[in-house]
Design a protein that fits this description.
Layout: H1 2-9, H2 13-44, H3 46-49, E1 55-59, E2 71-72, H4 73-81, E3 85-100, E4 103-112, E5 124-126, E6 137-141, E7 156-159, E8 164-172, E9 176-177, E10 180-186, H5 187-194, E11 199-200, E12 202-207, H6 213-219, E13 227-231, H7 232-246, H8 249-278, H9 280-288, H10 293-329, H11 338-365
Parallel strand pairs: 4-10, 6-8
Antiparallel strand pairs: 1-12, 1-13, 2-11, 3-4, 3-7, 3-12, 5-8, 6-10, 7-8, 9-10
Length: about 375
């Protein structure tokens, strides 16, 4: 049966190649669309995921760290003085405009205490994080070259008003949030650039063993009209919900995946129907010779499995290859998540089998007497 399935598919090799190419492009659209959604979520959660903080303290009327806000230093002083708290890091996380030559753009600035044991610029490819001990020194993601192609180590940006000169001492990678490169500075530099005193965007808290997030929330209850406490696990869930529901990224980008699925199913349906039409006499002959319906069904479904599998493998390879480039030129990061890729494959097979029902019905509804007609 396997040989017959393959033989039928290769009856017209040119058509098979064109079909696989079309289906590959369709599934590539699906993988890239899903990759944009998962990439944006992953990049937005990196500060939570790649640190060892147990909780975050944010402004009372904010829902997550992406919404900004202000936390006064007296809350920091109180939190760091609590017996169950091991450490507290103040973070300034805010968009800021920078100028290089005659060009300007925006970057996401992360100002942090460089002595932190839990947070640091990730994936540095040039420079050293210790350079950030100096004020007005930055480490910036290489995505900045999308806007300033000629920028290099020791070059200087202009930022803030009045202008402050920021010297580039490091380049990192994979620090992208909605098309803007991320720029790391020490906490004091961030405060000076934003002209703020005695406050931060949010606090990151590491707890001692035996002291819970609920304990921290209770001890800071006196500031409930100023701040609220959120666990790291809850923060990840809040960021994901914010991006998917409130920000609407699933609706705006997910349409690409839906379109890819629709095109893929059209390609499969037309291909199988045409293949069955071309080979109708042979398939009906098998039925006339006593072949069971399940045997014929397996031939057609087997063709679906072969086409979808080959196309999916090619689409996945292309998605993995193109993801870094697409991330650098688009507003959203593209991460190919293997779990979602496998779900895409499963969904493609499922929909492909559904599409094969029409040609299968055509075979079973055809009178075997057709083989005796001219």
């Amino acid at each position: 049966m396997v040989n017959l399935t393959i033989k039928d598919l290769f009856h017209q090799p040119t058509r098979l190649v064109l079909v696989v190419m079309g289906l590959t492009v369709s599934l590539l659209m699906v993988l890239v669309g899903i990759g944009m959604v998962t990439g944006s979520i992953d990049e937005s959660k990196r500060i939570v995921q790649e640190s060892e903080y147990d909780a975050f303290i944010i402004q009372y009327n904010r829902d997550n760290i992406m919404e900004g806000g202000r936390v006064p230093d007296y809350v920091y002083d109180k939190a760091i003085s609590l017996g169950g708290v091991k450490d507290v890091d103040r973070i300034i996380d805010q968009w800021i405009g920078v100028t290089f030559g005659d060009e300007d753009t925006g970057v996401m600035m992360i100002g942090y205490d460089i002595e932190s044991d839990y947070l640091e610029p990730w994936e540095i490819i040039e420079g050293d994080k210790d350079d950030l001990k100096k004020n007005n020194v930055i480490i910036v993601d290489q995505l900045i070259k999308k806007y300033f192609p000629d920028v290099k180590i020791d070059d200087k940006f202009k930022a803030s008003e009045p202008e402050v000169s920021l010297e580039i001492k490091g380049i990192c990678q994979n620090n992208q949030r909605f098309g803007s490169a991320m720029m790391w500075v020490n906490f004091e530099t961030a405060k000076n650039l934003l002209h703020i005193d005695n406050e931060s965007t949010y606090l990151c808290v590491k707890l001692k063993s035996g002291y819970s997030v609920d304990d921290l929330e209770e001890d800071l209850e006196i500031y409930e009209d100023v701040v609220k406490v959120i666990s790291s696990e809850d923060m990840e869930a809040r960021i994901e919900e914010y991006l998917l529901v409130e920000y609407g990224i699933a609706e705006s980008v997910g349409i690409l995946a839906v379109m890819g699925f629709i095109v893929a199913m059209i390609v499969i349906s037309i291909t199988l129907y045409q293949s069955v039409t071309d080979k109708l006499r042979e398939l009906v002959s098998l039925k006339a010779l006593g072949a069971k319906k399940t045997f014929i069904n397996k031939i057609i479904v087997g063709q679906t499995f072969f086409i979808v599998t080959i196309s999916f493998c090619l689409a996945t390879v292309l998605a993995l290859f193109l993801a870094p480039y697409l991330s650098s030129v688009s507003a959203l990061a593209v991460n190919v998540n293997w779990l979602w890729a496998l779900l895409t494959y499963g969904m493609s097979l499922f929909l492909g089998v559904l599409c094969s029902l029409i040609p299968i019905r055509k075979v079973h509804k055809t009178d075997p007497a057709i083989i005796f007609r001219a």
